[in-house]
């Protein structure tokens, strides 16, 4: 690397399966946007990872879904002039490094991966790709000598195995990859499911009332929030809000700005119906410009593809620099 690095390299990825929701925006993307001037940012749409559950993807839709996610990144405020936003499959080095790392990663380590266990449960036939998923993720991270990986707590094991793989690779071949650290968002940024305020909002829930999609229409947003689970009380108690009410306040606070105390005071003593309407108004108003920008970007697919092409070139230049040394280290061409 040329000279000392002044900014930390951040890498994160989102799978283009299912629509992004409020949890992705509040818990992840909005923080990336806020910090984007501080770091050297690389945001990836991990379409190769989406292939690990072939039953769950619609192949014809996958290309479009990847463009949707990329456009949403931009619509939410990630600036392609400041951050690299690219499609994983457009930088072939990800698959190449993943193969090399496959060959050095002991099966014993992989057998401990808890996400593989939960994701493969109930599936009739499980592809080898799902088993090797964390190794592809390690390749994503290591290719760019990433310092920080901003992801949810559920990804900790994947970041740790990335460190282990880097260390083993160095022991075997003498090549040093930067050891990445996980960067976990603080608890306040965690959005829970509307149907179950004990579980993090996730893309994989089958309950249509679980999450608010970033592209949901106003009427749908209102309906989902109206049916959000609260508790047996009827009015907001700012001193002691239950998990469901606290989650609604978290969502409100994220969109309305201001302090957490202001959000509490605004709704203290109000009925849950009024709370839900107030939250819906804030969410609808907050998502409107994002949706408008998204549709504008998606209607100019040529321009979007050109932007992604430029970003992929920038990513590939860096990935290629790493791979030149890695290939030499392991003795391939
Ligand atoms: N496994 C991550 C998730 O499901 C997605 C991902 C793939 C990722 N590659 C990555 C996240 C690299 C951070 C860095 O959320």
Explain this structure.
53% of the residues lie in helices and 7% in strands. It has 333 residues and is mainly alpha-helical. It has 2 domains: 9-183 and 300-330, HUPs (Rossmann fold), CATH 3.40.50; 218-293, Tyrosyl-Transfer RNA Synthetase, CATH 1.10.240.10. It has a 3-stranded parallel sheet with strand order 1-2-3. Strand 4 (148-150), helix 8 and strand 5 form a beta-alpha-beta unit. Helix 3 (59-75) crosses helix 12 (272-299), helix 4 packs across helix 7 and helix 4 (93-102) packs parallel to helix 13 (301-330). The longest helix is centred in the C-terminal third of the chain and has 30 residues, at 301-330. The protein is globular and about 70 Å long. It starts with 8 loop residues before the first strand and ends with a helix. The relative contact order is 0.14. The mean pLDDT is 94. Bound molecules: tryptophan. The site of tryptophan has 13 residues, from strand 1 and helix 7.
């Amino acid at each position: 690397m040329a000279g000392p690095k002044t900014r930390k390299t951040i890498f994160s990825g989102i799978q283009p399966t299912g629509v992004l929701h409020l949890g992705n925006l509040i818990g992840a993307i909005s923080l990336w946007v806020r910090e984007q001037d501080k770091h050297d940012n690389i945001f990836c749409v991990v379409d190769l990872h989406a292939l690990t559950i072939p039953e769950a993807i619609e192949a014809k839709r996958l290309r479009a879904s990847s463009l949707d996610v990329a456009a949403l990144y931009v619509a939410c405020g990630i600036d392609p002039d400041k951050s690299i936003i690219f499609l994983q499959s457009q930088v072939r080095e990800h698959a190449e490094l993943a193969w090399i790392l496959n060959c050095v990663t002991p099966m014993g380590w992989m057998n401990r991966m808890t996400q593989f266990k939960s994701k493969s449960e109930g599936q009739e036939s499980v592809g080898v790709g799902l088993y090797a998923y964390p190794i592809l993720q390690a390749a994503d991270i290591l290719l760019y000598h990433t310092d920080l990986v901003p992801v949810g707590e559920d990804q900790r094991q994947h970041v740790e195995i990335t460190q282990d793989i880097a260390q083993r690779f160095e022991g075997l071949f003498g090549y040093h990859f930067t050891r990445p650290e996980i960067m976990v968002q603080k608890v306040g940024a965690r959005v829970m499911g509307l149907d179950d305020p004990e579980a993090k909002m996730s893309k994989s829930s089958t309950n249509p009332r679980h999450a608010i999609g970033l592209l949901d229409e106003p009427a749908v947003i209102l309906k989902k929030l109206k049916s959000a689970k609260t508790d047996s009380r009827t009015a907001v108690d700012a001193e002691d809000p239950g998990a469901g009410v606290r989650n609604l306040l978290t969502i409100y606070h994220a969109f309305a700005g201001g302090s957490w105390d202001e959000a509490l005071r605004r709704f203290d003593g109000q009925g849950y119906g009024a709370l839900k309407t107030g939250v819906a108004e804030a969410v609808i108003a907050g998502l409107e410009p994002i949706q408008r920008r998204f549709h504008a970007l998606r209607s100019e697919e040529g321009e979007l593809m050109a932007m992604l092409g430029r970003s992929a070139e920038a990513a590939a230049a860096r990935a290629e620099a790493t791979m030149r040394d890695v290939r030499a280290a392991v003795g391939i061409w």
